[in-house]
């Protein structure tokens, strides 16, 4: 299989996985979470820096998007579960910014690769890491609201296999801002430029 065909097949697999249950709607807490589907995602390439690996996997995820070439992202690298591995979070915005919400991705670091845990649509910066008793840090994002209404804070908790909206938004003693805003966002490369 040649390079473009291999990238197309990988992009198809990524999109199939994203649509098969690992997509979480932050407005529907009872959404079906399917961690096995997230684990089926072709993991990021293991070469290069964490930023290069994240960039490559985002390029594959959005390879067939009608907005390919118009997307940008901002990321942060942090150990979310205190296992000594670097995990990654990223907001991806379209040509209209995050006005209607961005995609928030959470990736678990495993050796020199990232595995997708979640894609949470309709999120907006800032993204904050908050302490938790579950072993995984909680994440706090802004949930996009209908036009004319202000967005509200949405606390995301790790539910054993993926992040999901908490039933309550609790306050935290310690927090760390991971992504403040989308200033200086980087373009999501097309797969042929992510090699």
UniProtKB/TrEMBL annotation:
PROSITE patterns: PROKAR_LIPOPROTEIN. Residues 167-195 are annotated as: Disordered. This is Lipoprotein.
């Amino acid at each position: 299989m040649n390079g473009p065909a291999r990238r197309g097949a990988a992009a198809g697999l990524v999109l199939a996985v994203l649509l098969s249950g690992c997509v979480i709607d932050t407005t529907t807490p009872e959404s079906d979470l399917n961690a096995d589907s997230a684990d089926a995602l072709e993991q990021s390439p293991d070469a290069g820096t964490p930023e290069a690996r994240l960039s490559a996997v985002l390029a594959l995820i959005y390879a067939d998007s009608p907005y390919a070439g118009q997307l940008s992202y901002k990321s942060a690298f942090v150990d979310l579960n205190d296992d000594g591995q670097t995990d990654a979070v990223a907001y991806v915005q379209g040509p209209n910014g995050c006005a209607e919400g961005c995609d928030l991705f959470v990736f678990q670091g495993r050796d020199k690769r990232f595995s997708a845990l979640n894609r949470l649509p309709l999120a907006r910066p800032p993204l904050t890491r908050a302490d938790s008793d579950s072993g995984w840090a909680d994440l706090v994002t802004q949930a996009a609201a209908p036009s004319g209404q202000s967005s509200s804070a949405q606390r995301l908790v790790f539910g054993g296999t993926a992040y999901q909206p908490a039933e309550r938004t609790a306050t935290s003693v310690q927090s760390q801002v991971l992504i403040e805003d989308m200033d200086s966002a980087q373009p999501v490369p097309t797969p042929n430029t992510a090699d």
